[in-house]
Amino acid sequence: MKRSQSVFEKIFEWLLWKSRFIVILAVIFGILGAISLFALASYNIIMVSLDTLKFFSGKLISDNFSYILIGKTIGAVDLYLIAIVMIIFSFGVYELFISQIEDAEKSETGSKILSIHSLDELKDKLGKVVVMVLIVSFFKRVMHMEFHSPLSMLFLALSILALAISLYLMHKSRNQGKLL
Fold it and tell me: Cα separations (Å) of 161 from 62, 100, 137?
């Protein structure tokens, strides 16, 4: 038998349920952040392309141009990956708290990539992209390292091994449909 609610309780529960719409701020600003990161990364790639044209035309002289080019390109990839994290986060929060996205349900790719049905699923998808961001950031930092001892080389090798194991485990969990 269902008990009757007081007017105050009905109003409070209605307000409580409607308060979930506050997450729309996270969705809006998450998408704005992603757009900003995509724009900045694209600008960086355009600048790298212009520098490459200058280098081949002889207007830019640098002994380590390829080293600089790789560093800037990796930086742009890092920004793109962080933008993807923001998009996945925004879509996931929207679907969890507001409503399912009907256009994503109709789309063949969108429903698989951005469809989020639980907080654990959102954390899993974000975690995998964040690991990729960390790997790219690690690669970017390693490029600028100087190795002065065999111990530093050993630490680099162990770091690469740890990254390889994490990628293997991510791939294995995706193929088995299990969360780590």
Answer: 33, 40, 16
How many Å apart are CA 92 and CA 89, to the nearest integer? 5
Q: How far apart are CA 30 and CA 95, in angstroms?
A: 14
Cβ count near 18 (within 10 Å):
9
**Cα distance between residue 175 and residue 167, in whole Å:** 12
Domain boundaries, the chain: 8-117
Q: Express each pLDDT in 72-116 by its tens digit.
A: 999 999 999 999 999 999 998 999 889 888 777 777 765 566 777
Question: In whole angstroms, how large is the CA radius of gyration of the chain?
Answer: 23
pLDDT one-digit tens code per residue, 105-161: 777 765 566 777 788 888 888 887 888 888 888 887 787 778 788 888 888 888 888
